[in-house]
Every structure is written in structure tokens, then in C-alpha cells.
Amino acid sequence: MARDEIGFSHPDEETLSLEAIFHALSDPYRLRIVQALAASAAPMNCGDLSFGRPKSSMSHHFRILRAAGVLHTTSQGVEHMNSLRRAALDRRFPGLMAAILGETGHPAAAPAARGLAPA
Amino acid sequence: MARDEIGFSHPDEETLSLEAIFHALSDPYRLRIVQALAASAAPMNCGDLSFGRPKSSMSHHFRILRAAGVLHTTSQGVEHMNSLRRAALDRRFPGLMAAILGETGHPAAAPAARGLAPA
DNA sequence: TCGTTTGTTCGATAAAAATGGAACTAAGCC
DNA sequence: GGCTTAGTTCCATTTTTATCGAACAAACGA
């Protein structure tokens, strides 16, 4: 369990489990957080990822995503910046995030994972 | 919702959701069921996939896997034969099952999803 | 028809998760 | 120091899941 500076604890890459990742992604808000982060070039703070829900509720969701190793959070001033742990996830479960996010070799493919209506 | 002969109801391919699939796979027994089915050439009955747990408990897990569209079940005599809905899952979420099962282009890759120790 | 096998359904209980207000902490600004 | 902003932690409540015995149902064979 790596403890970043004075910050959050994120699980080591080797300990990431499919089970925890799936649990983390089985909640609609958490899935939206992941999708929003994937779509964003830059890290995003918690407020921007709260979808109008109470802070305490969202803080709970961030914690679960962090604990599953999906998210990485660092403090920058008053805010907490979140990003996907994409490289670690890709090494540990190659193709998983790509499939979830609807990134396939074929640009026309993966309609469902991109939120588009199926052909 | 397709209702097979006199049998089980399985969701239509178009309605499969990542969220439901993730929830289904976030339980250890359910994940093992999926992995066992993937490893098996032939469909398997419920007893062979029960890992020594009570029937009523496992029946519950089968129902969730079916409702998520992960599993397909048919009656054959007294037994219920289960198989992965691999084709439907692959069409709807290309690469997802391959990543979960640790099937990658490179035979040496995806150690974690195949249950092997990471290099 | 009776008994056996396989699995589902019911129902009660226990365990786990989600929710959100309130109090609190850390960082920055005046 | 006092004030503001951004999140976390605490705590109680609700909701959802999991667990598993017991009763039930369907298919088959003797």
C-alpha cells in the first residue's frame, strides 16, 4: 500500500483484484467518474466529479475507487486531483479499461461501452 | 427479455449493461463460475459449479449472472446447463471478456487475470 | 406411483453498502 | 487570527445483498 507524500493510500499495482475493481465499477456514479476521467485529458477535482450529489456521499465513492486501485488522488492546494491509474490497470489487466471505455481497434465498434445506441 | 422455451429468462443482448455485469462479477463465487465456464469447452450444470456451497446460495448467484446476461441456462433433463453468453458479450462489449479471462494477443501477458503471480 | 436427482423458490436473518447531515481538517487568502 | 474553499470523517439510517434451511417443482427411472 503506497502512501503518497502526506496523502492518500493507494494499493500497490500487484495487489489489484478484478473483484474489487468490479465492485468499484458496479455503482453508477463511480462508473461515471471513471468515464469522465477517461474522457478528460487532465486530472479532475472531486467537485467536478460530484454530479450534484452531497460531498460526503461522493467522498465515499472516491474512497472505494481509490481502494480498488482505479483512481489516483493527490492534493494540490485545497483540492484533490483525481486521475485514472490507467498504466497500472493496463499492465495488470490488459485490455480491461479499453473494453470498459469502448476503445477498440475498430472506430465503429464497441457501441455499448461508448454509450451509443447499438446498430 | 427472451424467454427460452419453457425455461429461464435472459436479457436481450441490447440491454446488457456494464453496471449489471460488474455487479455480477464482483462476487468471488460468481467470478469463479465465469472462469470455470470459460475454461470448459462444454456447458456445465449447477452442481459442478457450486464449489461445495449450499444449493440455495448458488441458485441465487446463478440468477444474478443470468440477469446480468453473463450466463445462459437451459434445461436438459433434470439438470440445468450453463454456458457463457460469450458471443453476445463480445458484440456488446468487445474485448471485455477477453480481458477478464486474461486472453490477450501475447501469450505471456495478462498474468493477473489468469491467476498467475505477476512477474 | 413412488423415490431420486437437480435445482428453484420462500422466508428469515445477517452482513455489507449507500446516503447524507454535521462536525472537522488542511490549505490558502485577507 | 479570522474567513473561505474543498474534502474527509463520523455517525445514524436506510437499502441492498448474501446466506442457507426448508418446502417445492420438474424430469426421470424402477
Structure characterization notes:
The structure is a homodimer of 119-residue chains. By secondary structure, chain A is α+β, with helices and mostly antiparallel strands. The first copy, chain A, has a single domain (17-100), classed as Arc Repressor Mutant, subunit A (Orthogonal Bundle). Helix content of chain A is 38%, strand content 15%. Chain A is built from 5 helices and 5 strands, in the order ββααβαββαα. In chain A, the strands form 2 sheets. Chain A has a 3-stranded antiparallel sheet. A two-stranded antiparallel ribbon of chain A has the order 1-2. In chain A, strand 4 (71-76) and strand 5 form a beta hairpin. In chain A, helix 1 (18-25) packs antiparallel against helix 3. The longest helix of chain A is centred in the middle third of the chain and has 13 residues, at 55-67. The first copy, chain A, is globular. The termini of chain A are far apart. The model of chain A has no long low-confidence stretch (mean pLDDT 90). At the A-B interface, helix 1 and helix 5 of A face helix 1 and helix 5 of B. Chain A binds a DNA duplex (30 and 30 nucleotides) through helix 3.
